[in-house]
Automatic annotation (TrEMBL), chain A:
Domain called B12-binding N-terminal: residue spans: 1-92
GO molecular function list: cobalamin binding; metal ion binding; methionine synthase activity
Keyword Metal-binding annotated: yes
CDD domains per record: corrinoid_protein_B12-BD
Protein name: Cobalamin-binding protein
């Protein structure tokens, strides 16, 4: 096994165990050995995130491991981002997503995981954080020419805000311009259909599959 | 039978006159008294008015006074932001933000801290008016759940891995505090408890993690309550709840979970496994039929639930989580009517 292959293999383990410092070192070393940011993402960091999501899917780990894996992923990405910017290397994106937690809702851990998984799978994400008014989702989506608006609601009292986003898009006559995905603990596929959204994910892993479907890549 | 007799009978696994209807109705009751949630949440008299109005309109078989997580959090120093209309208050600032904050956490005054006085004052008022007729359930929030109301959940899950000793210190303080709150709830008129855990679900923690950071404290609190001979119902939130663990290892009288979820036991499976000793509470999907369905659909689902689990007693018809404030009133009525129509004992004569 070449040194780079060995680094990628260690990177996968580093993501799975949430080893932020280890990932920083490995990312740095991979760059020194001449790997491009895209290669490092594709062969190391993203493979690690896919592996942890498979482990989560089998319920052999839970939220603590997913969150730490996400932190480790971003530790690597932080090193790669300036390199990407200065090298002019084109990053391959599957689509652009504007995501956030709806107005009057401040439970953002799920949305953060969705963003991490989307980014690990090649989506470009603009995370608007929590307590985001419908108009802000739409404004940002127009600004960055998003493909998808992803809105999370963690309470039955805030679910209607997801509906409001769709209503406002319709009012502006731009409903067809964006796909709208919804998620959150009390949200179901039936609710998605009821409010006329386009996609739903029961968790971060399913959300990625759904986003890929909406982009026509699976 | 009065709601109280019906409720107690079902909790003893006996057959009452008909299936009782159980709602965890908190802020949803504000609208019954024509109140906005913010005013309902800040005033014991208004909170009581909402609960009493809800009871008078629907005649459910229990009441669960309360508002939302910010009310409990406020006792521990979280800052609440109130909103207009039927929007729940939100936590604007947590009490625990850094790992070291777990050590600084103190058990607050169980009578007055934050909006605790609003809660207890409402219980006293409701109890004075309806206490002989309808069971008034007090909330016990499990320490691990509570930890994620005083700190962001992200803080809790990271500390579980990186600073477990500090998190345990926080959980110790919260456990002691929960026991003190049990006492003041009883003083205010509570004679049944509903223990809420929003974290005993595999999408949040593994069973091993929950055992170590959740169950050990839950059992300590349960032991404390049981010594007082007070019945406890457990409510498990989440899509993939640790039902077997809780049903076999927790000394509880009843259990409520999202039985219509996709990754969990349905009522008849639970009835076969644990129905002889734990009262099952559920049957109506609060994420679909209750908020999106017609009254006829709610009635059909309620009927199905009764057929699955009511025979022999030990069953209450309920949604799988708290009553959403957006639930159409006719769907609430449909649940009550279904219990009267299909839930008369004996179920299968």
């Amino acid at each position: 096994m070449g040194e780079l292959e060995e680094i990628y293999s260690k990177m996968v383990d580093g993501i799975v165990t949430g080893d932020e410092d280890g990932i920083r070192e490995l990312t740095q070393r991979a760059l020194e050995l001449g790997a491009t940011p895209n290669e490092i993402l594709k062969n190391g960091l993203t493979v690690g995130m896919t592996k942890i999501s498979e482990i989560y899917d089998r319920r052999e780990c839970a939220l603590p491991e997913l969150v730490l894996a996400g932190e480790a992923f971003y530790a690597g990405l932080e090193i790669l981002t300036p390199v990407i910017a200065s090298s002019g290397e084109k990053t391959e994106t599957l689509g652009t997503v504007v995501c956030g937690v709806v107005l009057y809702d401040v439970h953002d851990i799920g949305m953060t995981l969705v963003r991490t998984m989307l980014e690990a799978n090649g989506f470009k994400c603009y995370d608007l954080g929590k307590d985001v008014p419908p108009s802000e989702f739409i404004k940002r989506a127009k600004e960055v020419d998003a493909d998808i608006i992803a809105a999370s609601a963690l309470m039955t009292t805030t679910m209607p805000m997801q509906q409001r986003i769709i209503e406002e898009l319709k009012k502006e006559g731009i409903r067809d311009r964006f796909k709208v995905m919804v998620g959150g603990a009390p949200v179901s596929r039936d609710w998605m259909e009821h409010i006329g959204a386009d996609g739903y994910g029961v968790d971060a892993v399913e959300a990625v599959q759904e986003a890929k479907k909406l982009m026509g890549v699976v | 039978m009065t709601p109280k007799e019906r409720f107690e009978c079902a909790l003893r696994h006996e057959e009452p006159d008909r299936v009782p209807v159980f709602f965890m109705a908190m802020a949803a009751t504000a609208r019954e008294a024509g109140l906005e949630i913010a005013e309902y949440s800040k005033d014991p008299e208004k909170l009581a008015r909402g609960q009493i109005a809800f009871y008078e309109r629907y005649k459910p078989d229990c009441l669960t006074p309360g508002t939302d997580i910010s009310m409990t959090g406020s006792s521990y120093g979280t800052k609440t932001e109130f909103h207009e209309g039927m929007t729940l208050p939100t936590i604007a600032e947590y009490a625990v933000n850094e790992p070291e904050d777990w050590e600084r956490l103190e058990a607050p005054d169980p009578r007055r801290a934050g909006r605790r006085g609003v809660y207890l004052g409402a219980i006293e008022r409701i109890s004075a008016k309806l206490g002989d007729e309808v069971p008034i359930l007090g909330f016990i929030i499990t320490p691990l759940t509570l930890s994620s109301w005083v700190a962001p959940l992200r803080r809790v899950v990271i500390d579980m891995k990186k600073n477990p000793d500090l998190l345990h210190k926080g959980l110790r303080t919260l456990t002691d505090s929960v026991k003190m709150r049990v006492e003041t709830s009883i003083d205010a008129g509570i004679s049944y408890f509903i223990m809420v855990t929003t974290r005993a679900t595999r999408d949040v923690f593994t069973q091993e993690q929950y055992r170590k950071f959740g169950m050990v404290y839950d059992l300590e609190v349960l032991d404390y309550v049981i010594r007082k001979k007070i019945p406890v119902i457990v409510h498990l939130c989440g899509a993939d709840p640790l039902l077997d663990m809780v049903a076999t290892e927790y000394p509880i009288d009843g259990i409520n979970w999202w039985d219509r979820g996709e990754k969990t036991y349905n009522l008849s499976e639970m009835k076969a496994k644990y129905g002889d000793r734990i009262t099952l509470i559920g049957g109506v999907d609060q994420t679909r039929e209750l908020i999106l369905g017609s009254p006829e659909e709610v009635e059909q689902q309620a009927k199905d639930a009764i057929m699955q689990a009511a025979d022999g007693g030990g069953f209450m018809l309920a949604p799988g989580c708290d009553l959403p404030p957006i639930t159409p009133p006719e769907n609430i009525k449909a649940m009550i009517n279904a219990a009267k129509k299909y839930g008369k004992y004996p179920i299968n004569p």
